[in-house]
């Protein structure tokens, strides 16, 4: 049905990235590389291979969305559980299981970045292989993917204060087996991310999404079908807005967010580019669109999503499943008319409600929203626009209320505390998508909703910064992180 089902995902160079000091590449893969990079189709397969690495369970298939990072955002009650994420929920970053979880995120992310860089290092010398705009489009997506992954590393391992003068992370912009890039401050690292985003935007200036509905199949070249499933032009602009609000650059963030909002309302045929979900779509009795897929500016197809999410939320064999605290869930979604209330249901023999957002619809292999993990959605652009508005009243009336009415709720009156409204909406909108923790970190919040009770949890700022893996620290030079 989807583009990923139309094409075989090719696993690029199988790189073992045990730590950032060394990349071991089996020589037999060099033969594959020579064949891959001798045709346009080879580069297409290589790009899809990067996506394939990103949707692993250790990255956006679970840990960075439904699992580990949402645990850090206090989504679930973990205090009395023996579940694998119990210690992450208490920010015990020295516990063996948490160390292993952090190491797996670090290793797999830099593995995916290494694969991305390997393709980028090859593409400029093979420009003559490409037809039409495909060279620019493929390069643009690769640059955007590299920026996307590096930015999430910054949000996880970087300091709370972006003005911190200490060096924290390396930015890998080349595939290297020998020379390591230097450690950078958070500000320097962020500029590298922005550089890739801006270069990607230029390359994607002729993205098919600018002329065609992002949920359509391209019958001439299926590779460019279903652009919402890939880092398209509008997704890059949305990523730019996300980065700029994180850096405190409200003017730039607002400009980019409003560009995406304006484009979302443009028509491509009979439908807007990113229309709001309707009541009928969200509340269909047999096949509800629980992820509101038409609002997804960028989402990735995860073939094992149902299997992985069932193990998190639906396991009836053991007690070790992730469950929101019932009082917390009632606080977040008190209104039965709220479309997002359909994200939760009951497990057989349990009275507690669990996430059912990613359950397969009754009619399998039919809908575009099956097995799609939202990475950037339209409502985030409205939240950014509201936060950067000229006044709180303007933010609520023109942007927050758009979200309200399109979730089946009444408009706010405009006199509410905008900061409190934003905090509530980030907790509501991105459930099981891994974004709440980053909002708390960006806002330097020292009091957040406790996942284990209906109370507030006192948050230490150091809890927002994951420790670098020991293997990474082992290969740093004296004074390199000063």
What would you note in describing this structure?
This protein is mostly helical. It contains 18 helices and 12 strands. The chain has helices at 3-6, 28-36, 40-54, 68-72, 86-89, 96-123, 134-157, 186-203, 233-246, 250-264, 279-282, 305-313, 326-332, 378-387, 392-405, 418-429, 436-442, 470-474, and strands spanning 15-19, 22-25, 167-170, 183-185, 267-268, 271-272, 296-301, 344-346, 353-355, 372-377, 447-449, 456-458. The strands form 6 sheets. A two-stranded antiparallel sheet has the order 1-2. Helix 8 (186-203) runs antiparallel to helix 9 (233-246), helix 10 packs across helix 14 (378-387) and helix 14 (378-387) runs antiparallel to helix 15.
Short description:
By secondary structure, this protein is mainly alpha-helical.
Largest sheet entry: 2 strands, antiparallel
Question: What separation lies between the terminal Cα atoms?
Answer: 51 Å
Query: What is the overall silhouette?
Result: globular
Average pLDDT works out at: 90
Q: Spell out the helices and strands N to C.
A: HEEHHHHHHEEHHHEEHEHHEEEHHHHEEH
Helix share of residues?
40-55%
Instruction: Give the structural class.
Output: mainly alpha
β-sheet strand percentage: 5-15%
DSSP helical segment count:
18
Major β-sheet strand ordering: 1-2
Uncertain regions spanning at least 5 consecutive residues:
1-31
Over all CA atoms, what is the radius of gyration? 22 Å
Number of strands: 12
